[in-house]
Amino acid sequence: MNKSMLKTIVLGGTALTLTFALLTYPKEALEASVRGLNTWWKVVFPSLLPFFILSELLIGFGVVRFIGSILEPLMRPLFRVPGVGGFALAMGMGSGFPSGAKITARLRQEEQLSKTEAERLVSFTNSSNPIFIFGAVAVGFFSNAAVGIILAFAHYLGNILVGLVMRFYGKKADTTYSASTQRPSLIQAFKEMHEARIKDQRPIGKLLGDAVLSSVQSLLMIGGFIILFSVLNKLLFVMNITTFISSSLSYLFSLLQLSTALSLPFISGLFEITMGSQLTSQTAESTLFQQVIIVSFILGFSGFSVHAQVASILAETDIRFFPFFCARLMHGLFASILAILAWKPFEQNILSQAQWSPHALPTFLQEGTTSWSQIYFEFCTLYGPTFTILLLFTYSLLYMKRHFPLK
User: How far apart are CA 136 and CA 148, in angstroms?
Assistant: First the structure.
């Protein structure tokens, strides 16, 4: 039996098993599907769509080329990527998964990156956004805003460390940066911006329409993966597969002096970060210190749901997925180590907040609060679905106009 035939048998058998599980546990699958759908249309879609559209417009107007010219002396020596990588890094940190991958793929399609540079860039430009870390995880799950500080510190610094390591990936001949590169000139940067806009040749109306169509198509794909992995995670749990794998990890957790009760949330987090982070925060048999370590790894690894989204985006280019996967493992490891190192400086503040309100409601659920997390939560809950429906309707009109024009 050759390798290709074995792969066919494994994939087919896995699909049949999951189909059988779906028919056996329809109630649990439906609940998980609804949960994934609510996450997508209330939070993910309204959060990411503006970033996706703006990134397309900034690329089309040549602004990204301008930013790249300015940041070239910084990004080249540090990460061995062109200056436009700074734009992907900033947008990835601000809007979260999988914005960095989408922007990197777009830059590769524009031939502003080589294949190796794109593989370096995508490895450290995908991260969780600050609203999720502080609002959902720290305040929502742990009811402790101070936890968000240590999680964010470990997450973002860990991502930068991944970028510094990945600079050694690929052949040296791939880049031609020289230490004698001249300082960036604003005039030259504006010229490159203008040339990029003229080269695009699309009128503003078409550029905006293309941005909306491309962004909504990407978000529809992302929504499908969120729902799929939400169901998959639930099915693996009810079939006791997650429990079996977690029991196998108990010895490793004991060796690392971590509570064995955290092995089950850890496995869930490998598939989907939201559920894994929530289950970790609810594990009473572990200390807060141990929970922070596990959640740091989960956020860094990002979960197979995000991996599938990134793989689908990269499939439209010649960028390989494997370097991204290795980088996620490194990020999880780096974030966990940084969380351990940063625990002592923040320990007193974190524990004091936990002792002051061990059963406190999340900030956005308390009366009289006006924090940014409350504003974001209320916007997503009240207006997120309406915003999503309106944009999907707009997408439908643009799609019909493009593909079925009136004669």
Answer: 9
